[in-house]
Amino acid sequence: MSSKTPHPPGNETTGPRGHARRRFLAGAGAIAAAGLALLAPVWSGIRVVLDPLRRAGRDPSLVPVARLAALPADGVPRKFRVQADRVDAWNTQRNTPVGAVYLRRTDDSLQAFNVICPHAGCFVNLAPDQSRFVCPCHKSSFDLEGAVDDPSSPSPRDMDTLEVEIRDGDHVWVRFQNFLPGRADKTPVT
Length: 190
Known about the structure:
The chain is an alpha+beta fold. Helix content is 22%, strand content 26%. It has 2 domains: 15-56; 62-175, Rieske Iron-sulfur Protein (3-layer Sandwich), CATH 2.102.10. It is built from 1 helix and 9 strands, in the order αβββββββββ. The strands form 3 sheets. The chain has a 3-stranded antiparallel sheet, with no helix packed on it. Strands 2-3-4 form a 3-stranded antiparallel sheet, with no helix packed on it. Strand 8 (164-167) and strand 9 form a beta hairpin.
């Protein structure tokens, strides 16, 4: 015969081990409930802190840039500063400079180009003879239509065109945005 006596069923929860197990399960349940209760305010705080980043990725709206009368109809581009309201979760900054564009008007069209070179992000200039755009940093070169005009140009794509609209017969509005430099695809900066 064995010297051990079997425990009657149900006795494993009434001894010191059973009491410790119940305390552990009660404590674990309390911790889980507290964690769930803290989840809502923590999530709300994270959303408030990250709200400006969420807003930064929104589609830019059209902003007024110039009057149509300021553009010669001969196709020579003119450079204009772009100002827009910047809004985040905490502040609104009115008429903040956000960049610049070249506007080009011909008899039948109006074009807008971002002044940032698609190669490395330098500012593109109009050549002194006004026949093309040139980048002073790495010698990228573009024709007046914004297309790369030199096969040895380091720019991976043409100049970035922007949506342009004429309102009230004489006001030029542009959907201004910047794009990632150094890439063949036109990817908006978010």
